[in-house]
Design goal:
The protein has about 425 residues and is an alpha+beta fold. The protein is built from 16 helices and 10 strands.
Length: about 425
Amino acid sequence: MIYQVKKTCVHYFDGLIPWLEQVADSRKHRHYSIGAIVQSGISLFLFREDSRNALNNDRKEKVFRDNYENVFGLELAHMDTVDDVFRMLVPAELENVKKDMVSTLIGQRALESGRYRGGYLVAIDGTGVVSYDHPHCECCLRKTSKKGTTTYFHHVLEAKLITPSGMSLSIGSEWINNGGKTEFDKQDCEREAFKRLAQKIKDQYPRLAVIIVADGLYPWEGFFQICKQNRWNYIVTLQDKSLKSLQEEIQWEKRFRTEQQRQVFRVKNKKQVLLHYHWLKGLLYHGHQVNWVECVEETKNAAGEVIKKQRFVHLSDLETDGDHCVGISDSGRLRQKIENEGFNAQKNHGYNLEHKFSRNDFTAMKNYYQCLQIAHIINQLVVLSRRIVCLLEQDTKLTVKYLYKRMIALLLEVALDTGELENQISRRFQVRLI
């Protein structure tokens, strides 16, 4: 595992340490380099530690510190020092590092197989990070329950590049601020944050072919206009109660375009799945031409009885016909990757997203969040490499969590053979993704 982490960093991000050393440093007294500080913050999540104290406990062992320095070429800083620096560090500096990483992956065509009709699928969604029973800072969102209890919290809007193989790579983050409102309204706040996030993505990836994939919050005139201005395509979920005038047109058109239908059979988890597709082209909504795709999925048991039925509806500006309706629907349903492989993995699978790594400082909180996103990018490339996937397939009871547990145990107890470590990266090698 530790060799695979090292190989992944060298193969994909040979410039990572130089990027970290170029982060703007405003300190007057420097015991550790800024690269060592940021790498230590990234390692907190790279090793899936529960807290700053957990990594500090590992750091007490000399063999761990020596192994760490041999792998990364930098000192492991005390996490209290890291926290002090993160309170001063401008979060945009770490976002630029993340941007360089994603741009490198795109330039290397490492994500090419995940493209759909020439564009990269970028899912947009918001999630909660931390909550308090008292005001944390002036940017806190707040919500009062019917019983009069006020909760203060921070939400962030994420843009993640998603792939069918299971990747969910952060390419942009925008914190949802209260904006002077006394109550938190997800719809208003998230939409306003999307405007800022869209501008940030366009500035950082001006020529990137993007297909925005979003949930039922986003079919609104402003969203369509932003995508048009940025020359982005989109596939967005349409809820039954959204866009009333468009819904009426859809129901009217469905009566006369019954020929625009298709059925597809699949086998999923050893069960037969029948998918009914229906599509409509050239619908108008406030001057924007949209296409509508409906998918009704029926899962059957061995006896041919329907045991589960689901319905998915999407709007898109991509050309739609009998061939493309399946791809549009499948790509729209990939939005769940940002929730499962994205937020759920970061909250419940070792990254501890909702933990208060810096309890009192919002700037430090943002910097820890960016370190988490950087570490998550690296770890996904490790776990989805053919070498690790084959290892997991050979032993069905082996888990990713256990592999990371063994890796930490190795770093704590066994001095790495520096000659073998150097040999692993000096000779020609490949890191292939599934």
